[in-house]
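Shift notes (night). Ran GGDEF domain-containing protein while the centrifuge was going.
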Amino acid sequence: MILIGRSKWVPPRQWKLWSLPRPALSYVLGVDAVAIAITALALASTISGARAGVRPSEWVAFAVLTAASVLHLESARGIERRREMAANSSPYTNLKSLWVFAGLLLLPLSLVIALIVVSYGYSWIRVYGRTIAHRKVFSASTFILASAAAAAVLRGGGLIAEPRVPTGPFSLLVVLGTATTWWLVNFALVIGAILLSSPDATARSALGDLSDQLVVVAGLGLGVAVGALQASYPWVVPILMVTVLTLHRDLLLPQFQRAAGTDVKTGLATPAYWANAVPVELARAETLRSTVGLLMLDLDRFKEINDTYGHPAGDQALKAVGQSVRAEVRQGDLVARVGGDELAVLLPGASETEVLEVAERIRDRLSALNVSVDTAADRTAVITGVPASIGVAVYPDVANTMDQLVLAADNALLTAKQDGRNRIVAARPNPPAVTDHADQPVEP
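Came back to this:
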């Protein structure tokens, strides 16, 4: 038995872990097993190895970092909970790295691992709520593996005795190399899990927005500062909490805003976010004398999936469709869920030819899409093909306002449905009005 969320116990055979694709399952369990082995070795080294237990000063530093980490998580609980609700298939960035990296400079590896366990355990209880347990265990495991690799770099650079804060140019380089190693190992492990768990995901989508990784970099930099202050001026550390909380809000604000405008079931933009984004893009296009392409997608016979396999299976299929559509568009394009099974794609700067090419790639991908879903009978089924009809409209070729553009794309979508489904239809410009001068009255 294991606790999923706050109060729901789930038998082991019902864990979501087992629904992962076999390569992803082996990968996740392998990473978890290595983390457990590292934990055991670190504990053994602390108890009976080269170290003779933990020094009092290290226990004090551990207590300070643990308390600061818990206070930080509790203070930022609202932001983190909303970010956690956003469904996505890219790395989830946070500032836990701050306290963990400070611990690497001040503590033996066994206490660093204890700090990671406390941090994720507290987050699980107070922040994440009802969620999938194996993801949090895996995240903690990646932190443990990254910390072990970083500790090896510190030892290799000659920084063996704690505190291992930079005191000169060479030690600074060692610490910077350690921070880089920690980030690379953690990032690579997470990317591997995403790619194996989502066969339709591309490397680009799995990497996510690399600018988000600045959050982790900032956390590691603050970790060095916290470690140095804790080693020399421990009473200054509480003052940094105001700075940490302010940076947490500002650094994670873009992610928070995306989470607030993200459909929980699909990870796509919400109708409200979409309605605000379209006029902004049209105004920008008008200023730049550019174009904006719009695709309206309606999944053909999607109701049959819900009726045959159940609505949870339909949600799984819809999420896979959203991931497939995002994989065929550019980084700056916006994909939204604007209805039950209706999606919209906004393509700034795209010509009609480019928009039609994207639409054709999406149509082909969805027609060949295979989705593994959990049925209402507690079985797994594979849905082969989730075809869609697509309407295409381009600003300013067929419309001058948001309402006109959406109406043109909707009318094209309706035509695609009426012409036999699984088709692409482009809206045509309205012909200019023609005045028949022969019918005009002639003034005397």
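The chain has two domains: 2-260, 271-426. The chain is about 60% helix and 10% strand.
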